Amino acid sequence: MILKNTSEIDIVRANSTKINDVDFENLTFGSVFTDHMLVCDFKDGKWEKPVIKPYEPFLIDPSAKVFHYGQAIFEGMKAYKDENDDVWLFRPDENFHRFNKSAIRMAMPEVTEEIFIDGLKTIIDLERDWVKKGDGNSLYIRPFMIAIGSGVIANPSTQYRFMIILSPARSYFAGEVKVIIADHYSRAANGGIGAAKAAGNYAGQFYPTKLANEKGFQQVIWTDDATHTKLEEAGTMNVFVRINDTLITAPISDRILDGITRKSLIDIAKRDGIKIEERSVLVDELLTAAKNGSLKEIFGAGTAAVVSPIVGFSCQDVYYELPKIENSFANDIKDKLTKIQYKQAEDTFGWMVKI
Ligand code: COI
User: Which value does ipTM take for this structure?
Assistant: First the structure.
């Protein structure tokens, strides 16, 4: 994809930078933001000219629909810096298309490529000093859209704000990841908004995840809402299960996010001859495999989480520890993915886009 240098975006530069106050070695995910943000409003049926300006709070009407009806969507992406100081985006066209799919599902206007892609290019170029070199370092990119039109009547807003904010990042999880398999609460339902990156999908998980956290688990692996018998996703990441030498991940449906890391790992696995199946994993199958020793690994995959091995899971109040193995698929596939992202391995798929 061609990223244009555009004069269609106004830039108002910050008077000073916060970069020297940041401890880049000790970052809590998503807590530090760069000096600028991109803002673009939708009014009178069209998008206005985007502007990049100093990162700051802004005012919106208390009756704005985002507050009352949750009309809000987002994306998660990362930029990486290679050894030559070039900055790269990973598959930005995928995020652009998924963002607009989410917009359609939430009755919001689609953004143009000029706003989303050229907006990314311009703001990341401006903030390139914030993208640090070295394994594990990245600039997490959060494009999002909220309904800013006022009025508490329950219908779609006529005014929206699209924004891009940037946050230097290292790992998402601070330590080991243990999960609970959901048997009561659900993340998504057939015909619902599970496949959209809608803000409410995440808020709906906070309470059951809080209950899991209180028991010492970091995440919940969601199961299908109708029967709680099939593994789906973990909410902040898609889930892969390895039984013997086969990797299995749930097929995309309207209950599961079409993860870009997920689909990239599937492509890498296929390229490298790892047997991969896109099918439902039954909870019973997982328990049988855990008991007979054929369950080798479970890992999550997402932009923020990258590839996160899961060390154990609780199901029906029984805790199962995953075995420690030598030839971990999670480690292997993570290494292959991140080497492409950091431009340390040939990008045979043509995924990387230079800023
Ligand atoms: C991402 O991986 O980018 C996500 O959107 C998940 C988010 C909860 C951090």
Answer: 0.97
Residue range 318-335: mean pLDDT, rounded: 94
Are residues 32 and 167 in contact, defined by beta-carbon separation less than 8 angstroms? yes
Fold agreement (2-169, 178-341):
no
- Atom number, ligand 1, closest to the C-alpha of residue 302: 2
pLDDT tier, 6 (very low <50, low <70, confident <90, very high otherwise): low
What residues does each domain of the chain span? 2-169, 178-341
Please name the residue whose Cα sits nearest to atom 8 of ligand 1: 236
- Residue 167 Cα to ligand 1 middle (Å): 12
138 within ligand 1 shell (Cβ under 6 A): no
Six token digits for residue 247: 């990797």
Q: What is the 3-state secondary structure (H, E, C) of the chain?
A: CCCCCCCCCEECCCCCCCHHHCCCCCCCCCCCCCCEEEEEEEECCEECCCEEEECCCCCCCCCCHHHHHCCEEECCEEEEECCCCCEEEECHHHHHHHHHHHHHHCCCCCCCHHHHHHHHHHHHHHCHHHCCECCCCEEEEEEEEEECCCCCCCCCCCCEEEEEEEEEECCCCCCCEEEEECCCCCCCCCCCCCCCCEHHHHHHHHHHHHHHHHCCCCEEECECCCCCCEECECCCCEEEEEECCEEEECCCCCCCCCCHHHHHHHHHHHHCCCEEEECCCEHHHHHHHHHHCCEEEEEEEECCCEEEEEEEEEECCEEEECCCCCCCHHHHHHHHHHHHHCCCCCCCCCCEEEC
How does residue 2 score in pLDDT terms, banded at 50, 70 and 90? Answer: very low
Average pLDDT, the chain: 95
User: Pick the residue with more confidence: 5 or 262?
Assistant: 262
- Top-level class of domain 2-169: alpha beta
pTM: 0.94
- Measured by CA distance, the residue closest to atom 6 of ligand 1 is 236
The reply to whether ligand 1 has any atom less than 6 angstroms from the CB of 260 is no
CATH of region 178-341: 3.20.10.10
What's the gap in Å between 156 CA and the centre of ligand 1? 25
